[in-house]
Amino acid sequence: MPSDTTKIQTATISNIQTKNKTKVKGYRVILSDVHTWFGLLLGWLLFTIFLMGTVSYFNNELTAWMQPEIPARSQQTPLTSSIFTHNQNLTYLEDKSDGFAIAIAHLQQTQAHAKNWFIAKDIDSDNIAQRLHINVTTDDKRLKYQFDTQTQMAYTPRDTVGGHFFYRMHFDLHYMSVIWARIIVGIASMMMLIAIITGVIVHKKIFTDFFTFRWGKGQRSWLDAHNAFSVLPIPFHLMITFTGIITLITLYIPWAGMVSGVDNEQFFKEIYSYRAADATQLQAAPMASIAPLLATTQSDWRKRNSNYTVTSVSINHPNTDQSMIIIDGKAEHQLSTLGVFRIYDGQTGEVLKDSRPPPLAVQTQAVMIGLHAGRFADNWLRWLYFLCGTAGCGMIASGLVLWTVKRRRQLLTIDKPDWGFWLVEKLNIATLAGLPLAMIGFLWLNRLLPLELIGRGKWEVDGFFIIWAFGFLLTLLLSSRQAWRLL
């Protein structure tokens, strides 16, 4: 028989193990509550942010679809020689960015006395030599159109916010201050990051459960769906949430600039001092030839990085003694969002300013922003971003529905109504079903609204929210089952 000492030691070990198990269990229960409530309280906003961000990976394609007046690609032969004089250096025109020189020659003929010309290449990298976006600012108006450098045709599309609306809605929301919107989005993103981390810790069998899906099992099925949408793309979920926070980190931590010694006010003053300004007295003066300046600039940039190319050209007060040429560039498929620029005196061609490498912290943030926005990605990688973003929407949606499914069973034993449950279920329907419906309605409005309607783009946005509000009203008037089926 074991001695009394052995019994005491065994009992002590048993108590320690029991306490450890209790601590572990309590720890997981606490984190489970954190995961639940951090995911629920702003879950509808997170779904909106995630869905809008996911669609934004194709916002340029959406915008092109919403501007059917603009032909996708010209099949005509180039007509570059017809608008250049013989004394211009056309060596630059052999490069695929030659469209800038062609566009400037076009503007010299049509808008020679404007206050500002801004020319940017098309986002589609396969079409950068052909399609350019032009903004012209005059004393009393602003013109915006697209210019085909092959046919030398200008196309003015219908008034539409295009896919850019989804992109701005992703972090600026709407009908409210941009600053407050970004603060709210930042808080929601931080809560989501905590929810993701706690979710990984709580579900200790999360990778095992990923390969298990039990269809038609109610709460168990929704949990399996939640795991499926969460586990495989979890590196993407963590990356996209964290980089989303870093994107606007200077807004959330404004005192970081003081610690680093960076004067933001002076920084922006220096940048915008070279932008278009109202000159009180301007004298007519010829401008330097743009083609050699473009060629020299791009050649200098490519000594540092062979992938650098001109992305935009801005000319302030063209054809005057105050003219200024600002050339921006960036490496193709570059991860970082940072670019380079060079500023010339428009009359003499003298270099006024060259961009300098920013601090390491700024470069790091630019890489984070690039990872988040995915502008460096080719079509295949953009589709991967889109699919992972769709999985993120499914993760949030299944989590919200799981909360109601889990508590509906508990409410069967309670006589009094639960208004919190009722509100969550109605918000689920209005957001998970109503928001996609409003997005489809937004695309329909682009086709149905009269082309001559004043403020047409604004009506597209207002119509989007009217449809969404109508969907929410239906969820309040109908039973949950009817609302799910109808929407």
Descriptive account of the structure:
The protein is of the alpha+beta class. Among the domains are: 67-159 and 263-358, no CATH class; 414-487. The protein is 56% helix and 10% strand. The chain has helices at 4-40, 43-55, 59-65, 99-110, 164-172, 178-202, 206-210, 219-231, 234-247, 249-252, 256-260, 264-272, 290-304, 360-373, 379-411, 419-432, 434-448, 456-477, 480-486; strands spanning 116-121, 131-137, 142-148, 153-155, 308-316, 324-331, 340-345, 351-354. Strands 4-3-2-1-5-6-7-8 form an eight-stranded antiparallel sheet. Residues 74-97 and 125-129 have low confidence and may be disordered.
Strand order in the largest sheet: 4-3-2-1-5-6-7-8
What is the mean pLDDT? 83
Q: What's the helix-strand series?
A: HHHHEEEEHHHHHHHHHEEEEHHHHHH
Strand content: 5-15%
Layout of helices and strands:
Blueprint: H1 4-40, H2 43-55, H3 59-65, H4 99-110, E1 116-121, E2 131-137, E3 142-148, E4 153-155, H5 164-172, H6 178-202, H7 206-210, H8 219-231, H9 234-247, H10 249-252, H11 256-260, H12 264-272, H13 290-304, E5 308-316, E6 324-331, E7 340-345, E8 351-354, H14 360-373, H15 379-411, H16 419-432, H17 434-448, H18 456-477, H19 480-486
Antiparallel strand pairs: 1-2, 1-5, 2-3, 3-4, 5-6, 6-7, 7-8
